[in-house]
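Lecture notes, unit on protein representations.

Consider one protein chain, 358 amino acids long.
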Amino acid sequence: LSTPWILDVDVTVKPLYGRQEGAKVGYNPHKPGRPSHTYHSYIMANTRLVLEVDVQPGDQSHAAHSMPGLIGLLQRLPADCQPAFIRGDCEWGNDPVMSELEAMERRYLFKMKRSKRVKELITQVHGQGEWTRFDAEWELKESTLQLYGWERARRVVVVRRRLPKDPVIGVEIEHGGQRELALVEGPEDMRVFEYSVLVTNLDDELVTLMRHYRDRADCENNFDEAKNQWGWGGFVTRELQTSQIMARLVALIYNWWNLFVRLAIPEKHHEAITSRPLLLSSVGRLTESARQRRMVITSTHGERTIIQRAYERVHAFFSWLKATAPQLTPSECWRLIVTKSMEIFMGNDPPNRLPQPL
């Protein structure tokens, strides 16, 4: 955590089908009207590690209900392990949340809702020119904005993307209880743009800010993996506190497995649907001859070359750690294991107070 890192904050919905404490009807885009719990999650970006999760009733999905958990997490972290900034969606881009973070001297990057003043800002900057090019599709422009009720103006980044030429635009409306589709016919030279607005107190230049927010999409992959492959969406408990305990146990095991897989295969993240068959399908056989013990591991998986490299890497590291461990405390041993697992995120010179393993 002493390496600069980003804290992603987000909420996911778990539908419920029984009489459970906290089963409330709230925001549920996939199953509207279904009671649910909300999982307020705090995730270390890119590493897929869940730092904390709070289970709350289904009608408490707003960022205001996430703030106590966020503040508690930040207060528990040492001063040299604080995140570089906090990143969230449009639920977080409101004045009470940002004012509280500013009072704590925390950096943030949030998306804003498309309110009336935000739309007026988009209209104002649309024809000004001098947009900063991010890539072939996206353009950026910096401005300041102060909404009604805000104590002061804040830095915002207007982001736009021109949609493909000659798009067929359809507007769905509900008329007489039935849904109808109306096609929008425009002139041949019509230019259609998609806009969004980010608010931040970071000092980074525009391209870096845009890159930071685009990386936030990986947060949804965390939820998909934790719910569909690890059981966040599978257990059923009557009491809300029990759901809280189960959600944290699942997150803890999910973190342990991710660290182990990173230790064995550091090049990229492997989801459980592929990493579990890859690393758990082998059969081990212990043999003893001439007072020497030998473990023979046989795998029927097709990627045996990858498995062999993974086991060799793990074996080499833990052999070194076993020889060094008598000189270290348990905390120092854990620090070495996590540092080795996360070295791909630390660059060529990871900040470590202990000697590097060979």
